[in-house]
Amino acid sequence: MHYRANIEKVVWRIVDGEAVLVHADTSAYYGLNATATCAWEALVSAAVTREDLGRRLSACYGRDADTFRSDVDALVATLAAESLIVEAPAPMGDETDDSRTRDARRSHNGYEPPALSRFGELEKLVLSGE
Amino acid sequence: MIAKELQLSISSESKALYFHGMSMHPFLVEGDEVVVEPVGWPDIRIGDIVTYRFEDKFPTRRVVSKTADRVRLWCENWPDRRFGASRSDVLGRAVARKRDGRWITRHDSEWRAARRAALSLYVRRVLIPDSLWGLRRAAGTLARRLGLRRARRIASGGR
User: Shortest Cα distance from B128 to chain A (angstroms)?
Assistant: First the structure.
């Protein structure tokens, strides 16, 4: 099964290697730690499988992809439960982006399990006319 | 703050933003709902209303001039005050407003009429007086250089 970021409903920005996400429908906002951000970058670039995400983390952290299996399963379940990712058809052809993987390897050091933090819901934003 | 900026980028009629303050009266008043869309720098036009980041707020004002990397901003209800924002701080452009249950968009005649009226007011209240003041200063400088007028300090006895 393939997954991709729910880009129709979710906006995000990566700051200091960690992603901040906002869901358009719920106004909920989230933070991803560096490990989850590594996986998120793959999810926004293409439809990927859990195995792809394992390989992505392997590329980021230099460990065997199988060691990430349980962490990837947990992350996918958490992201899907919050509608931050959706199931997607398999992409046409090989969309692996080696340059992104190399960049990721340079920018990630210590491994910690991927984590999604839900910070709450944003209140209606006020535009200042003062 | 980052989440709020992201929230700005997904505003819509169902997720509108509130306007607070009187600086843009009468076009925007306290409690108006506003939709702000991300906008490319080349697409920003004189007369547009843009939202930008300033400290922890999102001021929303009208563009009265634009350079390669800055906009000068103005509010029709505060004609004597000037504002500016750099390109990197501009977050979006107001494209719709709801008041008393009715939406208008930037393409509607009411919106365009308000834009024209605001720019006209800006020309009369700011641009022409500024230009006249600049001309007066230039004329004074020229007159002093030609010896037609003494420098003010000398003329006033050096005080």
Answer: 25
Q: How confident is the model at residue A104 (pLDDT cuts 50, 70, 90)?
A: low
Distance, in angstroms, between A51 CA and closest chain B CA?
Answer: 30
Specify the pLDDT at position A114.
Answer: 93
pLDDT over 80 at B30, yes or no: yes
Contact B59 A127 (CB under 8 A): yes
CB B62 within 8 A of CB B48: yes
Look at chain A and report how many structural domains it folds into: 1
B28 contacts chain A (CB < 8 A) = yes
User: d(Cα A88, Cα A7) in Å, to the nearest integer?
Assistant: 12
Residue pair A115/A33 in contact (Cβ under 8 Å)? The answer is yes
The domain containing residue A99 runs over which residues? 2-128
- Residue A97, pLDDT > 70, answer no
CA distance B59 to chain A (A): 4
CA distance A75 to A53: 10
Instruction: Pick B19's closest partner by Cβ from A13, A15, A127.
Output: A127
Q: What is the ipTM of this complex?
A: 0.74
